């Protein structure tokens, strides 16, 4: 197949939050030709595109401007980068040779209006409008009008995507079931394609866990993570200290908000900002905490912590994406009330003081159920099915050029995301 891949964020470096697309591209490119068109936000550099060139037929980024009012122009579909991306997609499709479009991102939705009759597979990934609606419950009164307007926009865009897509993908069954189409609109066929974990990379170097540290990782400008970090430091940690006075809290991840930076001034709390390698911070900890109060999709941070053989205490919103349909329950401890969450953390800290050996069950669970290779095969099957039904598959069409080996993923490109 020849696949036109459209994304709202550039999938490199892997700390950008778009690692799902990088791994999908890597898996698909083993047998198929992929042309990537992507919006690129702050921090994009030309060498980022060069990193993907070995695994794609063509890659083109469309850097977003920094002028004021960019968000409003994006909502109206008038941002220059978005228009250029749509025009480029239209020109490529007009010249022919594509079998299917793989699309992701609410911001890039106008682009799929320009791909003609090609079948579109939409990677919805998570039910963002559902997460946004839950965020309203924890927002301050003055934030709610803006968040409510954002929720309405998300619902509108999601409906338009469902109306155009031939098939939709979700990262978890929770998100598929949550995104119920409105009356009069039928949900297209849907497939759950979970994220994976590079089990070889996320491997312990130290044999023993720490004994008195709690760790939480993630991109700390992302609202669910920033809210959870502050909640953990201010509402849960003081309760833990009543039983474990010398406990440390490690908040590890790039771009912390002002509120997150502020809790770093509390005694025993470390806010790192961006780090080149998250693994040593995970190895310092006795337990991983993820008290997210609103979330959607699969929390990769939980999968990575489990792969690093850490016990995990997490909220229901954080763990729901890991629940497999009719299969094994994830080996995590769930708690939502701050008192109960603190008790669970205390129990893990006390257990680590007695036996700091790694917890292998979590790693076994991740290795069995969250593989990028398995996800890629499932995605390939969906794309091939849509192309075949549409009559666009040209099985004799050659891959445009010889595939070179995918770029190596180094520690410096695997910071918290």
Report on this model:
With 417 residues, this protein is an alpha/beta fold. It has two domains: 2-196 and 371-413, Glycogen Phosphorylase B (Rossmann fold); 213-368, Glycogen Phosphorylase B (Rossmann fold, 3-Layer(aba) Sandwich), CATH 3.40.50.2000. Helices cover 40% and strands 14% of the residues. The strands form two sheets. It has a seven-stranded parallel beta sheet with strand order 3-2-1-4-5-6-7, sandwiched between helices. Strands 10-9-8-11-12-13 form a six-stranded parallel beta sheet, with helices on both faces. Helix 5 (128-136) runs antiparallel to helix 6 (144-164). The model is unreliable at 68-74 and 394-417 (pLDDT under 50).
Core attributes:
alpha/beta; 417 residues; 15 helices; 7-stranded parallel β-sheet; disordered C terminus; Rossmann fold
Sequence of strands across the biggest β-sheet: 3-2-1-4-5-6-7
Give the integer mean of the pLDDT values.
Answer: 85
CATH class of the largest domain: Alpha Beta
Any idea what the shape is? Answer: globular
List unreliable stretches of 5+ residues.
68-74, 394-417
Q: State the separation between the terminal residues, measured CA to CA.
A: 31 Å
Query: Structural class, judged by helices and strands?
Result: alpha/beta
Number of strands: 13
Helix % is 25-40%
Topology as H/E string? EHEHEHHEEHHEHEEHEHEHEHEHEHHH
Total number of helical segments?
15
What is the CATH superfamily of the largest domain?
Glycogen Phosphorylase B
């Amino acid at each position: 197949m020849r696949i036109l891949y459209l994304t709202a964020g550039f999938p490199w470096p892997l700390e950008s939050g778009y690692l799902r697309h990088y791994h999908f591209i890597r898996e698909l490119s083993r047998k198929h030709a992929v042309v990537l068109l992507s919006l690129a936000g702050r921090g994009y550099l030309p060498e980022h595109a060069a990193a993907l060139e070995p695994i794609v037929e063509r890659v083109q980024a469309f850097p977003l401007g920094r002028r004021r009012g960019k968000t409003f122009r994006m909502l109206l579909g008038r941002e220059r980068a978005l228009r250029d991306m749509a025009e480029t997609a239209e020109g490529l499709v007009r010249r022919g040779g594509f079998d299917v479009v793989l699309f992701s991102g609410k911001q890039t939705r106008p682009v799929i209006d320009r791909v003609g009759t090609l079948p579109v597979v939409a990677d919805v990934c998570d039910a963002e409008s559902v997460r946004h609606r839950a965020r309203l419950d924890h927002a301050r009164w003055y934030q709610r009008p803006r968040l409510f307007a954002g929720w309405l926009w998300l619902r509108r865009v999601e409906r338009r995507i469902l109306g155009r897509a031939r098939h939709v993908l979700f990262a978890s069954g929770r998100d598929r079931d949550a995104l119920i189409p409105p009356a009069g609109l039928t949900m297209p066929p849907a497939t759950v394609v979970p994220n994976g974990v590079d089990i070889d990379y996320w491997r312990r170097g130290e044999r023993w866990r720490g004994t008195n540290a709690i760790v939480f990782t993630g991109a700390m400008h992302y609202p669910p993570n920033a809210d959870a970090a502050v909640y953990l430091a201010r509402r849960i940690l003081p309760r833990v200290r009543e039983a474990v006075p010398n406990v440390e809290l490690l908040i590890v991840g790039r771009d912390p908000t002002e509120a997150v930076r502020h809790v770093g001034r509390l005694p025993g709390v470390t806010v790192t900002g961006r780090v080149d390698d998250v693994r040593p911070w995970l190895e310092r900890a006795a337990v991983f905490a993820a008290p997210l109060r609103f979330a959607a999709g699969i929390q990769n941070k939980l999968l990575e912590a489990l792969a690093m053989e850490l016990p995990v205490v997490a909220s229901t919103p954080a763990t729901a994406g890991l629940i497999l349909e009719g299969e094994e329950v994830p080996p995590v401890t769930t708690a939502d009330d701050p008192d109960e969450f603190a008790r669970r953390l205390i129990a893990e800290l006390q257990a680590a003081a007695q036996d700091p050996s790694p917890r292998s069950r979590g790693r076994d669970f991740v290795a069995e159920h969250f593989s990028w290779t398995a996800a890629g095969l499932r995605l390939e099957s969906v794309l091939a099915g849509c192309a075949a039904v549409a009559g666009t598959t040209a099985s004799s069409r050659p891959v445009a050029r010889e595939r070179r080996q995918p770029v190596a993923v180094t520690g410096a490109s695997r910071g918290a995301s």
